[in-house]
C-alpha cells in the first residue's frame, strides 16, 4: 500500500483530533499580521455612527486595531499582492483553484478586505479539512471565494450556474468547534479577482480553472494624481474617488488611532485598490458589493463604487447636522460662564482643559454628561461671591435677646466673638461648638448668629455620617461620584462667607469608607482651610471666610483632635421658670402662628403652661414642651374651623341646631381642658413620694440628654455574703458599689448596722442585691457612690431615707466625697423632680454659681466632705453614730 502523502496524514490526524475536541481550536497563518480588524473596525464604526449615533462608547472602538498591524498594513498589502500574483503565475503551475462557495446573503469578499466565513456545508467542510489544515498549522493555500448567487430555495445539489467572478483569498485563521455541530470559521483576506473559465469537478469540493483578472502591473504605487500616470476619464474618476475618501475620513474623529492610520493609508495605497478597499468598509449591501466585484474594468469599478461612497458621506453629514444644535451651544454657554465665574487661576485652567475635551467629545460618550455636570458645578461655585457683613453689636444684642430667652453665658460669649469680628474683619477662627442636651436652642442660636451678621445660613447634619466622601466628595473616576457636603452647601448658598452649622458632630461614625471626623479636621482648621480640596473638584477652594459653628450633645464622643480645634460652649437645660418664659415669649406665639390661630382664638394661662412643664414633660430642653403646646393649638384649631363652618353654612335652622354650638372665643385652656386634650399627666406623682421602704435612695445622674434623677434599690436575703449588681452597670459603677459595701462593713459597728439576724457584720449569712432601675439603659461613672452608700445604710439600719433628698458624689475607701461633673444639669433635674434637698461634694461648691438663683433659693443645697455628712443629711434627724467605745473592734472584710 502506497505511503500516504504527509499533508494528508496531518490532516487525517487533525480531523480525528477535531472529532475528539471538546472545545474550540484556532489555527492561524503566520501572516496573520495583516489580517482583519482594519476594514472591519472602520465599518463597525460607521455602522454604529449611523445606526445608534447616541450609543457609541468611545472605548469600544478606539483601540480595536493593534498598532503593529496597521503599521505593516501597506507593506503587507504589497507582499500579499506580489505573493498572490506569483502564485497565480501559470509558471508556478497554480492555475487551478479550489473554490469556497459563500452565501451572498452573508457577505461578499472584495480584494484588499478581510472577512469571516462560516463553514458548515459538506463541500466547504471537505475543502477546509483537505486543503487548509496541515497538522497544527495552516497550509498557505490560495482559495477562490465565489459568491453563491443561486436561488436558495432550489434544492438541487447542482453547482451550475456558478457565479463567474470570485476573489482569490488566503485563509489566515481557522477556528473550529464541534459544538453544537462540527463547523469552522475562516478568516480570509481577499487578494485579487479571478474569472472561472471552466469548472473541473464539483465534488468533494469545487475545483475550477481560472483566469486572474487584477494584474499587479496595472497597479501604480504612487502618491499623487500626476504620478499615477492615469489620465483621461479614469484619472479624473480616481482623483474624485480619492478626494471623496479623504472627505469621509475627515468626518471621522481623528483622535481615534485607527482613523489616523486610515488617513495615512489612503495616500500610500495604489489608487486602483481604493474602490475595493473603501467599498468593503462603508455601509453597502451585499448586492452592491457584488456589483463592485463584478466590475472587472477599473473605470467601471470606480464608477460603481463612487455613488456608494458619496451616499455614506451624505448620511454622515445629515447626522452631524442633526447633532450640532444639541452639542455645541451648550459648550459655548459653559465657556462664557467659566470666563465670568472669576475663579482662581488653577481652577480656570482645569475648566478650560475640560471645556476643550468636551468640545471634541461625541455627545453619546458617558464622559460627556459627567464633564458637563462638573463644569456646571465649577461655574456655580461662589469663587468670589460673598454677602456683605452688616454687624452692629447693639443690634446683635437686641436680636439675640429677642430670639432667645435666658442662655446668658452663651450670648455673652457670642457678643464677644462678634465684637472682635467687627474690629478685625479677617478674623481666623475660633470655631465655636455648642454642647448641651437636645432642644435647648443650639441650632436656633446658630441661625440667629447668621441673622445678626446678615449672612446666609446652611445646616449640615452630620449625625450618622460614616463615609469620609460625605465631607470630601468622591473622585470623579467613580460612577455616581459627587462633591461632598461642604462644597454642595457652598453651591446651595451661593456665597463664600455663609454660616455653616455642623449639627451633631458627636454623632459622626466610622466605617470601612474612612473616618469623616478626620476629613473635618482640615475643614475646621483655620490655618489650612483656605485651600480645602474636595476630591470631586480636585482644585482648592478657600473656606477661610466660612463661619463654622458645631453643635453636639456631649463632648465624650468627639475625637480629641477635632475637639481641640473648637471652643466648647456648654448650654445646659432650663429651669421651670425659664421654660415658662420661653413658652410665653416664643413657643406659644410660634405655635399659634404655625396653626393659623391668634390670641382671639386661644388663651393658655400661665398656670396651664406650668402644668404642661411640670406634669406633662420632664426634659432639659423645650422641644417636647413645644410639641405639647402644638397639640393644644391643634385641638383649638378644630373647634375654630368647625365654628367657622357653622356660621358660613346655609341651611335649615334645624340643621344648625343639630350641630354643636361653637365654643366661645377665645378658648381658655384650663386644667380640665388640658387633661381632655393631652390625657392624664404622665409625671403626676412627685418622685420624692416614692420612697416608702428602707433600701431606696435617690441619686442624680448626667446623660447627654441632660441631668436625671435615678433611684438606687437594695435588698438583702439569706446567703453567703454575695453582692449582685443589675441595671447594665459599667466597671466604674461596679467598683463604686464594692467601695460602698467595704466602707459600710468597716464602719458597721459605728453606725450600728446589722445583718439579717442582727449580727454585727452586714454581710454575714446575707446576700445583697443592688439594682439601678431603667435596666435597659447602660450606666457608668463614679458619681453614684454616695447614693449607694446611703441606700445600703438605709437597708442595713432599717431606716427610711428622706423622700425629698437627692445626691451625687464620688466616694473613696476612707469615706471622703470627691467632686463630680454636670452639677448644674443635675441640680436642674432635681428641681424638676420636686426634690427639696440636694447633697453635693464640697469641692463642687464653685459650680453652684452657674445654677440660676431662683433654683438655688428653692433648693437646700448641702455640700459634704465625707460620708458621715452624707448620711446625716440623707436621714431624718441625722444618722447617729454609736456612743464612744462601741466603735471597736472593726469587722474584718470578707470581700
Ligand atoms: N432660649 C430659647 N429661647 C427661645 N426658643 C428656644 C430657646 N431654646 C430653645 N428654643 C426653641 O426650641 C426649639 C428646639 O431648639 P433647637 O432645635 O435649636 O435645639 P437643639 O439644642 O439644637 O437640639 P438638638 O441637640 O436636638 O439639635 C426651637 O424651636 C427653638 O426655637
What is the helical fraction, as a range of percent? 40-55%
In DSSP terms, counting alpha (H) and pi (I) runs of 4 or more, how many helices?
A: 31
The Rg value, from CA coordinates, equals 47 Å
Structure class: alpha/beta
Give the strand tally: 27
Major sheet: 7 strands, mixed
Quaternary form: single chain
Beta-strand content bin: 15-25%
Q: How many domains?
A: 6
Q: CATH class of the largest domain, anyone? A: Mainly Beta
Q: CATH-wise, what's the superfamily of the largest domain?
A: LON domain-like
Whole-number average pLDDT?
77
Q: Enumerate the spans where pLDDT stays under 50 for 5 or more consecutive residues.
A: 1-41, 48-96, 221-229, 654-661, 884-895
For this structure, the CATH topology of the largest domain is: Archaeosine Trna-guanine Transglycosylase, Chain: A, domain 4
End-to-end Cα distance, whole Å, is 109 Å
Bound molecules: adenosine-5'-triphosphate
Strand order of the largest sheet: 21-22-20-19-23-26-27
Identify the overall geometry.
elongated
CATH architecture of the largest domain: Roll
Brief description of this entry?
It is built from 31 helices and 27 strands.
